[in-house]
Amino acid sequence: MHFLVDAQLPPALARWLAAKGHDAEHVSDIGLSGAIDPTIWDHAASVDAIIVTKDEDFAQRKTIERRGPKVVWIRLPNTRTRELLLWFEGIFPRILQALERGDTLIEIIR
Q1: CA–CA distances in Å: residue 76 to residues 37, 47, 67, 107
Q2: How confident is the model at residue 110 (pLDDT cuts 50, 70, 90)?
Q3: Pairwise CA distance, residues 15 & 21, whole Å
Q4: Spatial contact of 50 and 57, defined as CB atoms under 8 Å apart
Q5: Smallest Cα–Cα separation from 88: which of 8, 16, 6?
Q6: Mean pLDDT of 17-40
Q7: Dihedral (Cα; 31, 39, 1, 8), 10-degree rounding
Q8: What b/e string do you get for 30-60 counting C-beta neighbours within 10 Å, with b at 16 or more?
Q9: For residues 8 and 80, is the Cβ–Cβ distance under 8 A?
Q10: E strands, the chain, where?
């Protein structure tokens, strides 16, 4: 799977996903750190990437548009990177299961 990690989440999350064997990049890796949401959306759609974000706008757009990238909406308060990665590791198997069964919007609440 190919993941695109949005700006509100740390680049370390993209590195963690890559270490788990997935294609993953952070928006800052590809020059999109200051890009508006439609630009990020279009890029993700063009490369068949799953957007991992804390931004509710992507989730709202996904509920309106059937086409476009899949979205993993992470709803958790600001936290340190280490704590985020430990938490993400625990829920990642459920995220993968949801993606494999065809879910296009996955909301993860902490």
Answers
A1: 20, 27, 26, 11
A2: confident
A3: 10
A4: no
A5: 16
A6: 96
A7: 70
A8: eebeebeeeebbebbeeeebbbbbbbebbbe
A9: no
A10: 2-5, 23-26, 50-53, 71-75, 105-109
pLDDT tens string 42-85: 999 999 999 999 999 999 999 999 899 999 999 988 899 999 99
Dig out the tokens for 78 from the structure.
Answer: 């600001």
**Entry field: residues in the chain:** 110
Angle formed at CA 69 by CA 66 and CA 70, multiple of 5 degrees: 85
| Residue 102, amino acid | G
Per-domain residue ranges for the chain? Answer: 2-109
What type of residue is 26? H
Amino acid 105 reads L
Two tokens at 12? 């370390």
| Cα separation, 69 vs 12, whole angstroms | 22
